[in-house]
TrEMBL record, chains A, B:
The gene is rex. GO terms for biological process: negative regulation of DNA-templated transcription; response to redox state. Residues 79-180 form the CoA-binding domain. InterPro entries: CoA-bd, NAD(P)-bd_dom_sf, Rex_actinobacterial-type, Rex_DNA-bd_C_dom, Tscrpt_rep_Rex, WH-like_DNA-bd_sf, WH_DNA-bd_sf. NAD(+) binds at residues 90-95. The keyword GTP-binding does not apply. Gene3D superfamilies: NAD(P)-binding Rossmann-like Domain, Winged helix-like DNA-binding domain superfamily/Winged helix DNA-binding domain. This is Redox-sensing transcriptional repressor Rex.
DNA sequence: TAGATTGTTAATCGATTAACAATC
DNA sequence: TAGATTGTTAATCGATTAACAATC
């Protein structure tokens, strides 16, 4: 069976398509051409058609794309039709902020548990979920069908915790710790390195002022 | 005066170089070759040399790169030797989490003010900074040499607030609102779309399981 | 049917990797 | 000097854009 590998460049654009299509759908727009979407999103119509055609012919010549069905298809491609249970490890400010964010639930991401090494935080409640001590992490992962672990702990403990997660069958790690994790093939890691992001911003601020006369 | 434009692909890798070099420096490593760094970071030595040479010849044939000075140079390129004042707009969970994060200060990013439209949050203290009402935002930006605004507000108000920021001389927006901002050329926007990031993770989880036999 | 717009192939552009002469 | 490793040019690879035949 032939497996055409989709590049991460394409994958990275799918959530943005999904967002625009969702908004169009909510506005009651029924159909859209790659040309119109191009104007809205400021990417080329050609790229839009190439991107969609990686996954099959969702459009119709002379008509364009049906917003509702394209929205649903992209959601399916992104796996948003499936439920993904997640736990948050690290009940600090960032971890609690993510736990309190309701919108993930709407996309099928279900907040199941929260863990922290600090005994003072254990027992606290974040949106109905009690913070558990770290020694319950491994059994909890195994017994509660947890797909995704959100790592909001200092980098000093992140590598060690990631190894435990992998050993207990986690499928993906959403890593907010400022360190590169080394996981076996097949385990997905998505890094959110906030300070890297801020540094890019800083570069571009300074580049711009020196470019200007 | 010739301006060689550095691609965002290169810029995006600089913070990671910076991080590895900082760790090497802390470990007391004095010099490193592109070959060694390649092994550590899992990118090609060729790419490392190309990347660095966009900014000048930091190395020495037969020796490699001096860790300390390369670290400092990259820091300078990223503008980390300059102070950047920032405000956070939106004192919800995420805004407060970012305000409480101390490590930005170490890199020259100084937390100067915080704003929220909700009167119940006004007056609250986040790491020594009092939450101010939105009607003080514009004068505060102008009078306190604010470079960067961190947007942690709902997307419904983000576009409007961004326009105000631009009108009052902001130079960069670190945008956590799930919407695309339209700003004039020269204003930098760095988006952190957390739900997009989570969707990518979701895609890769599902891709992997269907690829596997 | 005529017009519109896709799906897809071909051309272009840019980024990554390889190779090697320069040089410490 | 000989060996090591950069800086840089050339080759390759992959992603984006353009073009157009297929088709609704």
């Amino acid at each position: 069976m032939e497996v055409k590998e989709i590049s991460q460049a394409v994958i990275g654009r799918l959530p943005r398509y999904f967002r625009y299509l969702g908004e169009l759908k909510d506005e009651g727009v029924e159909r859209i051409s790659s040309q119109e979407l191009s104007g809205l999103m400021k990417v080329t119509a050609s790229q839009i058609r190439q991107d969609f055609n990686n996954f099959g012919g969702f459009g119709q010549q002379g008509y364009g794309y049906n917003v509702e069905s394209l929205y649903r298809e992209i959601g399916k491609i992104l796996g948003l039709d499936k439920q993904h249970n997640f736990v948050i490890i690290g009940a600090g400010n960032l971890g609690r902020a993510l736990g309190n964010y309701m919108n993930f639930e709407r996309r099928g991401f279900i907040f199941k548990g929260m863990f922290d090494a600090n005994p003072e935080l254990v027992g606290k409640d974040v949106r109905g979920v009690k913070v558990m001590p770290m020694d319950q992490l491994e059994s909890f992962i195994r017994e509660n069908d947890i797909d995704i672990a959100v790592l909001t702990i200092p980098k000093t403990s992140a590598v060690e915790v990631a190894d435990k997660l992998v050993a207990n069958g986690i499928r993906a790690i959403w890593n907010f710790a400022h360190v590169d994790l080394n996981v076996p093939e097949g385990i997905q890691v998505e890094n959110v390195h906030l300070s890297d992001s801020l540094m890019k911003l800083s570069y571009n601020i300074n580049r711009y002022s020196s470019d200007m006369k």
